[in-house]
Design goal:
Order of helices and strands: HEHHEEHHHHHHH
Helix content: 55-70%
Number of domains: 2
CATH superfamily of the largest domain: GntR ligand-binding domain-like
Largest sheet: 3 strands, antiparallel
Strand content: under 5%
Distance between the termini: 27 Å
Radius of gyration: 18 Å
Number of helices: 10
């Protein structure tokens, strides 16, 4: 999913698809907090749409496990938990490693060039870490997507995208708690550089080991804190 820094609620195109994108963004970035009740009056005002498109979007978010429904009591943002955090990140690390292995096997020169370009963009926009971490996260997303796309498996990429989106809520908490700690991002930068080197060298074992460790890092940091129990303190 593309992360945008602004939601255009004035657009005349009030389709359910547009609402779905905006509402997904708001949930993933924490505008609507885990467990928060999604009141129709507030949603109608924010997105400038009627109940029909909202209900359609909310139904799709239920399928994506970002929203839960209460009997006769409306919708709530899907809660977060340490158990879910561990499950998502452990599964995602293995899926990402599988993508990396296949990408090294199948990726061509164009794949390598795109990885290098995305890594460069992420590096030169490092100043966004302190000012607009969610904007920097888009460059980070593009970098990892460029790597994974080399696997050339639509089915595998679909699974990966779903896990990436579910992990985004937790990763954004990690960003919020660590964006002022430059040592954390210095380590993150070194992990990216080592990963690029392993990918370009076509070293499957090293690349898969690095990607597993890299994916699991935010999970391990969040598990060691109380952020999951009190995410917005």
């Amino acid at each position: 999913m593309k992360i945008h820094d602004k939601i255009d609620v004035d657009s005349k195109d009030n389709s359910a698809a547009q609402v779905l994108g905006a509402l997904t963004y708001d949930i993933l970035t924490g505008y609507f907090q885990p467990g928060e009740k999604l009141r129709m009056t507030r949603l109608k005002e924010r997105y400038q749409v009627g109940v029909g498109p909202l209900r359609e979007a909310l139904s799709q978010l239920m399928v994506k496990q970002l929203v839960v429904v209460e009997n006769q009591r409306g919708f709530r943002v899907h809660p977060i938990s340490k158990d879910e955090l561990i499950d998502i990140y452990e599964t995602r690390s293995e899926i990402e490693a599988l993508c990396v292995g296949l990408a090294i096997e199948r990726g061509d020169d164009e794949w390598e060039a795109k990885i290098v370009a995305c890594a460069h963009k992420m590096k030169i926009h490092a100043e966004l870490l302190e000012k607009e971490p969610h904007l920097w996260e888009q460059y980070h997303h593009d970098f990892h997507t460029a790597i994974a796309e080399g696997c050339q498996s639509p089915a595998l990429l679909q699974v990966r995208d779903s896990l990436y989106e579910k992990a985004s809520r937790y990763r954004n908490l990690w960003l919020k708690k660590n964006m002022v700690d430059l040592s954390v991002f210095d380590a993150n930068k070194k992990e990216h550089e080592a990963l690029v080197s392993a990918l370009l060298s076509r070293d499957v074992d090293a690349a898969q080991s690095l990607i597993r460790k890299h994916i699991l890092s935010p999970s391990l940091i969040l598990q060691a804190t109380a952020v999951i129990d009190h995410p917005f303190d």
